[in-house]
Write a structure and sequence with these properties.
Length: 275
């Protein structure tokens, strides 16, 4: 874990799903949210690993990987501060069919499975947000399958870089060519060639597992339409979360005003009877 990351002030509000909860609901979760470091290469679950927690990333990025019997892997989704790892728990299952692996170091808030299930079943805002996020994640998985089948390695790399940039506070990424090849399910030589093309166009600078994006607008012109589909879906997700929170706040404010008026009415009635 880098010194810079460890010095960043931490708050559950850094995760979009937690930040969208009503203030009173989030405050009830505070004592149960455990801040944990997320180290590159760390696995958070899998088919043979019983889930005991869900993770809400704040400054880390996690890839969902599927593996073949001979050890080959393919990334099916990327999760950052917009989401949660361990959705199968609130769907009634305590394992994951894929393997979540930390790809970018940082932190996450961990929540016990029992409390998650309790909140999911009884707190409608959390249930709504989790299900809405599930829809966005399924869209990412489906679009990734389309992209892997029909687009070039260079376009895959552009999509991967942009998805990471959307989830980290910097234009610099730490990932080796081998790591990228494993995530995209392609040969390392293909990544070397694709990264070389982008570097010659002065879109990125690559050196020893370190990628710096020099020109994001040009990177967006090189990517396939799949990134735009995913960007639209996640922008809509974040918009929905903000809208949902605003509606809940207005309802609570209106409910509080109604209680205040009713109490005042009762107070006047009591005073008149006393007189």
């Amino acid at each position: 874990m880098s010194t810079a990351l460890s010095q960043i002030p931490h708050s559950p509000h850094q995760n979009c799903l937690l930040a969208a909860l009503p203030t009173d609901e989030l405050e009830q979760l505070y004592p149960h949210l455990e801040l944990v470091p997320m180290l590159v290469g760390e696995t958070l679950g899998g088919p043979d690993h019983k889930l005991n927690h869900v993770y809400f990333p704040t400054t880390s990025v996690v890839s969902l990987l599927n593996f073949t019997e001979d050890g080959k892997s393919t990334k099916i989704a990327i999760i950052g501060n917009e989401g949660v790892i361990g959705m199968s728990l609130f769907m009634g299952w305590d394992t994951m069919s894929n393997i979540p692996v930390v790809q970018s170091a940082g932190y996450a808030y961990r929540l016990n499975e029992n409390l998650l299930k309790q909140k999911f079943n009884h707190v409608m805002p959390m249930q709504h947000q989790m299900l809405r996020y599930t829809q966005a994640l399924l869209t990412q998985i489906a679009q990734t399958a389309v992209c892997n089948q029909h687009h070039s390695v260079e376009q895959h790399l552009c999509r991967l870089l942009l998805l990471y940039l959307d989830r980290v506070p910097s234009n610099e990424l730490t990932m080796t060519q081998e790591m990228i090849a494993n995530m995209l399910g392609v040969r390392r030589e293909g990544i070397t060639e694709a990264a070389g093309k982008l570097q010659r166009k002065n879109i990125i600078h690559y050196s020893r597992g370190h990628i710096k994006v020099l020109d994001r607008p040009r990177l967006e012109t090189e990517v396939c339409e799949c990134y735009k589909v995913l960007k639209k879906e996640y922008d809509q997700l974040l918009s929905d979360l903000v809208t949902m929170r605003s509606i809940l706040l207005r309802k609570k404010s209106s409910f509080g005003l109604s209680i205040y008026r009713e109490n005042k009415r009762k107070e006047k009635l009591t005073n008149s009877l006393t007189i």
